Amino acid sequence: MRKILLISILMSFFSFSSDIVGKWYNAVDKNDYDAILEIKKDENEKYSVYIIEMKNPTYEEGENKGKDKMDLYNEDKSLRTRKLVGLKIVDDLYYNKDRDYYDKGNIYNPKDGKTYYVYMWLENENILSVKGYIDPLGWFGKTTKWSRFDEIK
């Protein structure tokens, strides 16, 4: 009985279920990522995600060639001049201990300028699944996978 209790205690120390804080690539394969993201947790146990670096931070063609990429598709026209690097793309995300995932958040997609519901869960300590969805129940959406920054292939 003591062995079972000891194993249970040790397993809880090595659990990665709530360890999403840190840097992540927004792809599983190093060659496919667009951005490096940083997940932060505030004093209220709320998680946020920021774009901290981009693979191609400037426009390569067109009228904005050579300029920093901006939030051009934002539905709020007054925000279209803000830079993507430094932009908060996820907010109000909480860890749900009972279900072992992160939910109740919103994710902003700068590629279409829209905000979606989001929840996240760890596949393992280095792969984070991120589901953005349009309906409150999470039935209609898309899941992507992010890789921990220092562990990508």
TrEMBL record:
<protein>
    <recommendedName>
        <fullName>DUF2147 domain-containing protein</fullName>
    </recommendedName>
</protein>
<keyword id="KW-0732">Signal</keyword>
<feature type="signal peptide">
    <location>
        <begin position="1"/>
        <end position="17"/>
    </location>
</feature>
<dbReference type="Pfam" id="PF09917">
    <property type="entry name" value="DUF2147"/>
</dbReference>
<dbReference type="InterPro" id="IPR019223">
    <property type="entry name" value="DUF2147"/>
</dbReference>
<feature type="domain" description="DUF2147">
    <location>
        <begin position="22"/>
        <end position="148"/>
    </location>
</feature>
